[in-house]
Amino acid sequence: MGIYSERTAAVNREPDRIRNGSADMRARILIIEDEPEIGELISVYLEREGLETKHVRTAELGLDALEGGEFDLVVLDINLPGMDGFEFLQTLRKESALPVIIVSARNADEDLVLGLGIGADDFVTKPFSPRVLAARVRAHLRRRFSSPENETSEIRFGPYTLDTAGNVLRRGESRVGLAPKELELLKCLTSRPGEAMTPETIYEEVWGRMYGDISTVAIHVQRLRKKIEKNTSNPRYIETIKGFGYRFNPDTLGGKSFEGGESR
Ligand code: CA
Q1: What is the 202 CA–ligand 1 centroid distance (Å)?
Q2: 97 by DSSP, 3-state: which?
Q3: What is the distance in A from the centroid of ligand 1 to the CA of 48?
Q4: How far is the centre of ligand 1, averaged over its atoms, from the C-alpha of 130 (Å)?
Q5: Computed from CA positions of residues 251, 253, 254, 257, in that sequence, does the dihedral angle turn out positive or negative?
Q6: 6, 14, 61, 10: which is closest to 33 by C-alpha?
Q7: Domains and CATH numbers, the chain
Q8: How far is the CA of 137 from the centre of ligand 1 (A)?
């Protein structure tokens, strides 16, 4: 089966990709993964999406590949022989803001990535669904290639502005430091204001998996509240719906400030 027919199949499956242009761009993805089967699996799925891939098995070869050619995104394993994924990322970030999606078997790596603040853009835990990974890659590519003029993506609530395309939360002019999953959680909740969502639904949307440690949702809600709520025991934005889940308070939308008393 040739590349042409695979691309056609991918386009038929998801018409919105034509509008977003990723089929025409032939974005190039660098996959750094030492396990050949996993690397191959990722490669096959991404190529089905009309993307070009290059698979290397070490971080050192990954750095060589980046020197030798243009890439639009990196899919990075953490456990690698020689230089590991963390060191790779730290090295890369000295020179490049290229989007990086980490794929790791260890849940604890996520905390390490966030804790170190070494600039991964996303995190997918093994065993992962290749479809979920492909969707994440597409989402990051859309952000990378979308022009700000044709994408209005600001959600205002209270004194905050959430830029969903630029992946930034601002309070007034200053940036609120959110970990990637906190940001995804906020995007998930604000995408359906007023709608109560179960932790299971949130987990599936934000973590991209159907089964796992659902309590992580409550932990991330707490972390997010600490960063955006004035009073975490009486949250204004992210409400707890007892015995059900969470809901984003729609009354806070629209950019009126509730803090400081400037709205009147
Ligand atoms: Ca590995």
Answers
A1: 28
A2: coil
A3: 23
A4: 16
A5: positive
A6: 61
A7: 2-145 (3.40.50.2300), 152-252 (1.10.10.10)
A8: 19
Distance 120 CA to ligand 1 centre (A): 17
Closest CA to 208 of 103, 65, 117: 103
Distance 57 CA to ligand 1 centre (A): 9
Report CA(219)–ligand 1 centroid distance (Å): 28
Measure 49 CA to ligand 1 centroid, in angstroms: 24
Rounded distance from Cα 220 to ligand 1 centre (Å): 27
Q: How far is the centre of ligand 1, averaged over its atoms, from the C-alpha of 192 (Å)?
A: 37
Summarize pLDDT for 23-36 with one digit per residue, the tens: 445 799 999 999 99
CB neighbour list of residue 24: distance below 8 Å, 6 or more residues apart: none
Q: Are 50 and 7 in contact (CB under 8 A)?
A: yes
3-state secondary structure at position 151: coil
Per the listing, tokens 């639009």 go with: 72
Q: Give 113-168 pLDDT, tens digit per residue.
A: 664 566 788 888 888 888 888 888 988 887 766 655 445 578 999 999 999 877 89
- This prediction has a pTM of 0.51
Q: How far is CA 104 from CA 81, 97, 133, 144, 217, in A?
A: 14, 20, 12, 23, 19
Residues of the chain with pLDDT under 50: 1-24, 115, 149-150, 256-264
**Residue 154 corresponds to which amino acid?**
E
User: In angstroms, rounded to a whole number, what is the distance separating the alpha carbons of residues 129 and 73?
Assistant: 19
